[in-house]
Amino acid sequence: MPLLALVVGSMIGGGIFNLSRDVAETTAPGPAMIGWFITAVGMCCLALCFQTLANRRPDLDAGVYAYARALFGRLVGFLSSWGYWFSAWVGNIAYFVLLFGTLSLWFKGFGSGTTWTAIIAASVLLWALHLLVIRGVRQAAIVNTISTIAKLVPIFLFIVIMIFAFNFELFTGDFWGTESGLGSIFSQTRGMMLVTVWVFIGIEGASIYSARAKHRRDVGKATVVGFILVLVLLMLVNLLSHGVLQQAQISGMAEPAMAGILESVIGRPGTIIVSVGLVISLFGALLAWILIPVEIMQVAGEDGTMPKVFGKLNEQGSPSAALWLTSVCMQVTLILTGFMGEGVYKSMISLASALILVPYLLSALYATYLAFTKSTYENDPSSRSRDLVLGVIASIYGVWLLYGAGLNYLLLAALLYAPGLIIHAWARRERGEKVFNSTAEMVLAGLLVVAAIVAGVMLSTGAIEL
């Protein structure tokens, strides 16, 4: 149950409450259904890859990072852990902004979630969560299980009400987005890809905690069951909304869009129901996403990929150094949001999604590699073909997501990946090893630095922006 709650709790954060608007900004119902089909197939294969990897390589703890290292070596493994860690806490900033923007329903001083009053309140919550986690991961996991169960109630209520209020003629009125001028079906489908990645981030949550699971088979089960449950909820929330309001109405709604949609059907109580559910949901999601990046950094520090200090545990068994670094980074970024104005939430979720694409793709490639080389299949050759197909599809999906992210966010991701090379060098020198083990690693590092420089120049000139 705790592993399943972690997977569901990680994925069902704030994203589902604003999903309808985020998708409607670029996509009509018809292309959205195509996009969800692509997402369902791709993410299902990715979930099954995580299940396969958890069963076939139970010796690899911390999933995403460990798979990248096993396939491509220490530098790529480090970059995977660095990108995953960065993605997690950047996503937390989006959660903080959305949380206090929602609380402005009762406390007007919070505004859209980026006023200084909201930033101070978010900082207090950040350090309260920090203290909870530093007292022990197990205590925090119990709280996460409770919040996961609690958050599902308003979501199920929303779906039931939408089913009864659904208008099929409204749903099919501008089915392909031709009247709205949203572009081709292909461009609309591509436009929703980063949004779908955002709402599925956390699919690997159980594999990150594989070392703490009582039975390794529980890791795979939690991943697949959690994926199916969340997929159904996401599709229903998104598509049913188009049977209640037009695409233009949904895309113009304030955050969280689910509140406005439900209010259009049942009045003011709709906003209150969704807002309460969102507050509970975001608390659980923040707790889960403080736990996950800290765990992956701790394992990386323990095995030598990160500096040793990040691998140390306190008396309660929590990785305190990794937690402190994560919390400080979030605090600094929270302060910066006060100068960023509107649109912080959308910028943060897009950047978090772009950062995590590489770790996901590397995991799919490793699953493909194991099946292709027959490694770990000596006693189970019958399932190799199936796993190979799953790995290939998940890998193709990963490449498609990189394309869907666009050059803008890929360059911004490179800008954040590049500083990690300094931490990598620190870890290597700390152990008396070479910073780079091969020419290929040197070339990779060089390309990353060049991309980061290009991104920095373009960002400073306004050619790209968050």
From TrEMBL:
Keywords noted in UniProt: Amino-acid transport, Cell membrane, Membrane, Transmembrane, Transmembrane helix, Transport
Protein name: Arginine-ornithine antiporter
Regions crossing the membrane: 34-54, 75-98, 118-137, 149-171, 191-211, 223-245, 272-292, 347-372, 409-427, 439-464
Annotated compartments: Cell membrane
Family: Belongs to the amino acid-polyamine-organocation (APC) superfamily. Basic amino acid/polyamine antiporter (APA) (TC 2.A.3.2) family.
An individual GO BP term: amino acid transport
A single GO cellular-component term on record: plasma membrane
Pfam families on file: AA_permease_2 (PF13520)
Principal location class: membrane
Membrane topology: Multi-pass membrane protein
GO molecular function, one term: transmembrane transporter activity
NCBIfam families in the record: 2A0302
